[in-house]
Amino acid sequence: MPLKLKPFKAKNPRKPRIDREGLEQAALIMVLKLRHPEAAKLIYHVPNGGHRHVKVAMDLKKQGVRAGVPDLVLPMARGGYFGLYIEFKAEPPYDADVSPEQDAYLHLLIEQGYLAIVCRGQVDALEAIRSYLLQPPTRAAA
Question: In the chain, what are the helix, strand and coil shares in percent, each to the nearest 5?
Answer without folding.
Answer: 40, 15, 50
